[in-house]
Amino acid sequence: MSNQQWSSKLGFVLAAAGSAIGLGAIWKFPYMAGSNGGSIFLIFFILFTVLIAGPILLAEFVIGRRGKKDAISTFKKLAPSTPWPIIGILGTVVAIIILSFYSVVGGWILSYLARSATGGLSNLTQAQYGSLFESIIANPIEVLGAQMIFMLITIIIVSGGIQNGIEKASTFMMPALLILFVVLAIRSLTLEGASEGIAYLFIPDWSYFTAKTMLLALGQSFFALSVGVSVMITYASYLTDRDNLGRSTISVATLNIIISILASLVIFPAVFALGFEPGEGPGLVFVVLPAVFNELAFGGIFMFVFLVLLLFATLTSAFSILEIVVASFSRGQDRKRTKYTWLAGALIFVVGIPSALSFGVLTDITIMNYLIFDFADYITASFGLPLGALLICLFIGFQLKKEDVYEELQKGAGVKAKWMPVWYYAIKILAPLAILLIFLQSFEIIKF
Question: What is the pTM of this model?
Answer without folding.
Answer: 0.83
